[in-house]
């Protein structure tokens, strides 16, 4: 594996918080990847995420699209996003990274950072747009692209921002595609999730809509479970801004339990929170047939190998959760209309293609879906290196 193109470490002089930027590679002179903030974030984590972004970008390459994928990148700040000083730390980080944002790093929201807050902090740092590096490549001009992106963010589904739903919708469609392609039931299949914030909540909503039963959800306070299926919409209506479930307002059969969410008897486990959640110390708890990475780098390589050896397939992060990133670019470049109907239609089609091709490549039982999907992404990156950018 090649070293990243660029690694930057920043120290906030006021709080001593550390911040990082890793550009895994440049394609067409630019890179793409979100900015996260969490206590304990490390340079190694950000580098892993940047590499994943390179794969995620390339995997969504379609020669007929206006959008031509970029290289992967990621930003990270080791600081508690709930701390009163988090907003100021974010602004100072953006000020330090401004030269990269203006030239070669297009970024957006990620774990612990909401897009609205990111946009406000960017404005305070005199940054025109967090996707400024991508704007020179929009065929019909930056104004048209930004107008489409604004319309996409303004779109709502049942009063909820499309931007808050599309990533989770993609993970749910990836899950359904995997079940259908392998001949497993969808209606009545069971799922357990780690994380109930923006991503996890949307995943739970759309898995339920597809006919699965969400039987357990883990948040920062533990696990809430119901073998018959949780009242997902009720839980969503009574969660905090950071994705905690209100235990005082549970439905009668939705109960807090003491067990590890990984041990939940179910067909599908979905990660939607922290990195390295499934690792060498806990993978043995899993009995599910599928693990779907709704969160980036949430399954360690060693754990994935062990799971695969005993028949559990991991649908990798750069496949399963790629819809949120791709939606930004499809909208900005005009490959889809800035509407929910257009976004959902494109995501459904792309997720089925990516998941089916990954599973078909692993059909001989000796190759993981990750290996197959990564090979496809590497092929796309080779083609992208040869393609001139308009």
Describe, in plain words, how this protein is organized in 3D.
It is a single chain. The strands form 3 sheets. The chain has a 7-stranded mixed sheet with strand order 12-11-10-9-13-14-15, sandwiched between helices. The two termini are 29 Å apart. It folds into 2 domains: 6-137, Leucine Dehydrogenase, chain A, domain 1 (Rossmann fold, 3-Layer(aba) Sandwich), CATH 3.40.50.10860; 160-384, 3-Layer(aba) Sandwich (Rossmann fold), CATH 3.40.50.720. By secondary structure, it is of the alpha/beta class. The mean pLDDT is 95. It has helices at 43-59, 86-103, 115-124, 142-154, 162-181, 198-209, 232-237, 301-309, 317-320, 323-333, 340-361, 369-386; strands at 6-11, 18-23, 31-32, 35-37, 71-78, 105-106, 156-157, 160-161, 190-194, 213-219, 222-225, 255-257, 268-271, 290-293, 313-315. Helix 5 (162-181) packs across helix 10 (323-333), helix 5 packs parallel to helix 11 (340-361) and helix 11 packs across helix 12. It is 41% helix and 16% strand. Keywords: Oxidoreductase. It comes from Streptomyces hiroshimensis. Belongs to the Glu/Leu/Phe/Val dehydrogenases family. This is Glutamate dehydrogenase. Residues 163-389 form the Glutamate/phenylalanine/leucine/valine/L-tryptophan dehydrogenase C-terminal domain.
- Widest β-sheet, arrangement of strands: 12-11-10-9-13-14-15
Count of helices? Answer: 12
Number of domains: 2
Assign the structural class, choosing from mainly alpha, mainly beta, alpha/beta, alpha+beta, or little secondary structure.
alpha/beta
Based on CA atoms alone, the radius of gyration comes out at: 20 Å
Tell me what the CATH architecture of the largest domain is: 3-Layer(aba) Sandwich
Per DSSP, what share of the residues sits in E-state strands of 2 or more residues? 15-25%
The CATH topology label of the largest domain is: Rossmann fold
CATH class membership of the largest domain:
Alpha Beta
**Amino- and carboxy-terminal Cα gap:** 29 Å
The biggest beta sheet is recorded as: 7 strands, mixed
Helix content: 40-55%
Per CATH, the superfamily of the largest domain is NAD(P)-binding Rossmann-like Domain
Write the H/E string, N to C.
Answer: EEEEHEHEHHEEHEHEEHEEEHEHHHH
């Amino acid at each position: 594996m090649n070293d990243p193109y660029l690694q930057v470490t920043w120290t906030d002089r006021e709080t001593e918080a550390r911040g990082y930027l890793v550009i895994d590679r440049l394609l067409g002179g630019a890179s793409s990847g979100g900015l996260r903030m969490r206590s304990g974030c490390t340079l190694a984590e950000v580098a892993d995420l940047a590499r994943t972004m390179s794969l995620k970008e390339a995997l969504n390459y379609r020669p007929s699209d206006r959008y031509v994928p970029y290289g992967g990148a990621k930003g990270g700040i080791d600081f508690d996003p709930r701390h009163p000083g988090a907003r100021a730390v974010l602004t100072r980080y953006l000020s330090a990274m401004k030269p990269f944002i203006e030239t070669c790093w297009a970024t957006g929201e990620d774990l612990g950072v909401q897009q609205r807050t990111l946009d406000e902090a960017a404005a305070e740092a005199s940054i025109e747009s967090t996707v400024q590096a991508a704007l020179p490549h929009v065929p019909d001009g930056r104004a048209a692209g930004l107008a489409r992106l604004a319309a996409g963010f303004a779109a709502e589904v049942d009063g909820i921002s499309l931007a808050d739903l599309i990533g989770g919708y993609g993970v749910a469609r990836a899950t359904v595609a995997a079940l259908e392609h392998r001949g497993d039931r969808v209606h009545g299949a069971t799922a357990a999730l780690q994380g109930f914030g923006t991503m996890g909540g949307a995943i739970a909503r759309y898995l339920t809509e597809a006919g699965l039963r969400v039987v357990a959800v883990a948040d920062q306070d533990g696990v809430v479970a119901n073998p018959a299926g949780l009242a997902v919409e009720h839980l969503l209506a009574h969660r905090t801004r950071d994705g905690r479930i209100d235990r005082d307002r549970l439905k009668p059969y939705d109960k807090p339990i003491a067990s590890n969410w990984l041990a939940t008897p179910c067909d599908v486990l979905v990660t939607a929170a922290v990195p390295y959640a499934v690792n060498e110390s806990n993978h043995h708890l899993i009995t599910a047939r599928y693990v779907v990475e709704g969160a980036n780098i949430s399954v360690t390589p060693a754990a994935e190998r062990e799971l695969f050896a005993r028949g559990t397939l991991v649908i990798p992060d750069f496949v399963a959760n790629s819809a949120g990133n791709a939606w930004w670019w499809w909208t900005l470049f005009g490959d889809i209309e800035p509407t929910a109907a257009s976004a959902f239609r494109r995501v459904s089609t792309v997720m089925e293609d990516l998941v089916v091709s990954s599973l078909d490549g692993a059909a001989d039982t000796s190759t993981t879906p990750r290996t197959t999907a990564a090979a496809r992404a590497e092929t796309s990156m080779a083609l992208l290196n040869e393609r001139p950018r308009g």
